[in-house]
Write a structure and sequence with these properties.
- Keywords: Hydrolase.
- By secondary structure, this protein is an alpha/beta fold.
- The protein has helices at about 40-45, 70-85, 95-110, 130-145, 145-155, 160-165, 165-180, 180-190, 200-205, 220-230, 245-250, 250-265; strands spanning about 1-5, 10-15, 25, 50-55, 90-95, 115-120, 210-215, 235-240.
- Helix 1 (about 40-45) crosses helix 12 and helix 2 packs across helix 3 (about 95-110).
- The radius of gyration is 17 Å and the shape is globular.
Length: about 270
Amino acid sequence: MDQLTVAGAVLRHDDHGPSAGVAVVLVHGHPFDRTLWRPQVEALVAAGYRVITPDLRGYGASDVTPGSVPLSRFADDVAALLDHLGIGRAVVGGVSMGGQIAMEFHLRHPRRTRALVLSDTSAPAETAEGRALRNRLADRLLAEGMNGYADEVIDKMLADYNVTALPDVAAHVLAMMRATDPRGAAAALRGRAERPDYRDSLAAARVPALVVVGADDAYTPVAEAESIARLVPDATLAVIDKAGHLPGAEQPERFNSVLLDFLRTHCPTP
């Protein structure tokens, strides 16, 4: 695990694979950490890719920035990480909030975006109802901590049937959620509530995009992924059966196969 300091916070990350390989940055969602991507790291490194997995500020081993952290801050943290590693362009992907950070990165740093991987995410700006909900949840997490919330949402983060069918995966997801600092989770929720609409920038994208979604995602259903895929001029859509909001964790072999097919087609590594 390596670290750098950006805008007053020590941010930690893992950097795996050959330095000459095509760089792939994988951004976790809320409220997780970089270990969410372990199955993808192993598969991509074996295929010759360089894989960077950051802990976002407020999550995992990175420092907390309390208050409100907009998606633009997270995206610029990724850009600073690439600078730190001497990487000019990268494939940038993420799941859920991480997918929105990838879209924000593409919006702010289009020339540094080699391709996008957008898993189980949504492109429109937050609604008024959604903003209120996220701010109420932020207040609740600060008051109560993460445990009750984690128990309530585990059967939405994973397809409900996978909570029992995949006990090790469920235990890992629960552990990540429970270990998240409530201040970091709340700050991200408040910032995400103010996110912009990414549809115009996606429609103007000059890079390929892989759009992935779990067939039984309760948060961002297949229709959300289909709408993103229709926007991006060069998009590949993949629906992962027997998975919910975290198909990379629930069905890693299927997810990795789709991801590697996309990367070998659009971003072959030396």
